[in-house]
Write a structure and sequence with these properties.
Helix content: 10-25%
Radius of gyration: 18 Å
Largest sheet: 18 strands, mixed
Shape: globular
Strand content: 35-45%
Low-confidence stretches: none
CATH architecture of the largest domain: Roll
Distance between the termini: 20 Å
CATH topology of the largest domain: Diaminopimelate Epimerase, Chain A, domain 1
């Protein structure tokens, strides 16, 4: 039961090819939780299960969070899976290919020997019924809610997965870890939500702190970078091409007039190993 570990700006995933797991159609919730556990398992921010059959793309991928839930899309996960495909010689340098995830089909391209990967992430929507956000159908921009002891103004965005973005004059990891868990499960968001606290640095640069649905505080996120940049652009705060700064590093975002997102960032190959069956005798 072989796995391959990569990180994208400190956001780490285990790639698990179904061909290496005979008899598994997909990992169970219990298996995912122990595999991802930092103390009892191999340790990661999630599992990339693929390639799997795809209806509308060259490769299919399923993405699992450490709590066992399934993510519709992950920008960092897509870049890592693209790098895995390149390392396995299933795709060629600088040649576009397509990946299907539950959140849609994306086009990816590996460049510079795997050091730089661009993913066409799709179009961002601000429509409540497509994200989803509770209430009447509307664009969710500059709405207010109170979380614990503080009122926030938030925008919501969807890019195959849901995001809640709050523009603030100052942000911190402490802010994300304090308020993120409550926002993730707020009644406004029927499918839970990824949370970003955003500070505009200038017209070409923003900074974010991230609380990821099903994973918790995260050093970097490609879909969070995409959604946050799109919100900042929608509000007129930034230009169409910008850099998103996170604790783990930087991602480049290009925003088309229709809010289609092109994301470019690095990946790092960490290593590979074998899961022992004894691992699954542990419950977490």
């Amino acid at each position: 039961m072989r796995f391959y570990k990569y990180h994208a700006l400190g956001n780490d995933y285990l790639v698990m090819n179904p061909a290496d797991f005979p008899g598994w159609t997909a990992p169970t919730v219990a298996q995912i939780r122990v595999i991802c556990h930092r103390n009892f398992g191999a340790g990661s921010d999630g599992i990339l299960w693929g390639p799997v059959p795809a209806k509308s793309a060259q490769f299919g991928l399923r993405i699992y969070n450490p709590d066992g839930s399934e993510a519709e899309k992950s920008g960092n996960g897509l870049r890592i899976f693209s790098r895995y495909l390149y390392d396995q010689q299933l795709v060629a340098d600088a040649t576009p290919f397509t990946i299907e995830v539950p959140g849609g089909v994306v086009e990816s391209r590996v460049m510079d020997g795997g050091q730089r990967i661009t993913v066409e992430m799709g179009r961002v929507t601000f429509q409540s019924d497509r994200i989803p956000v509770a209430g009447p159908v509307r664009e969710v921009l500059n709405e207010k809610f109170t979380i614990q002891d503080r009122e926030f103004t938030f925008c919501a965005a969807g890019i195959g997965n849901p995001h809640c973005v709050m523009v603030l004059p100052e942000i911190s990891a402490a802010l994300a870890t304090h308020y993120g868990p409550a926002i993730e499960v707020h009644k406004n968001f029927p499918n839970r939500i990824n949370v970003q606290f955003l500070k505009v640095l200038d017209r070409q640069n923003v900074q974010i702190e991230i609380w990821e649905r099903g994973a918790g505080y995260t050093l970097a996120s490609g879909s969070s970078s995409s959604a946050s940049a799109a919100v900042a652009r929608k509000l007129g705060l930034v230009d169409a091409n910008l850099t998103v700064h996170m604790p783990g590093g930087q991602i480049g975002i290009e925003i088309a007039p229709d809010f289609a997102i092109r994301m470019t960032g690095p990946t790092t190959r960490v290593g590979e190993g074998v899961l022992h069956p004894e691992l699954f005798t542990t419950k977490v």
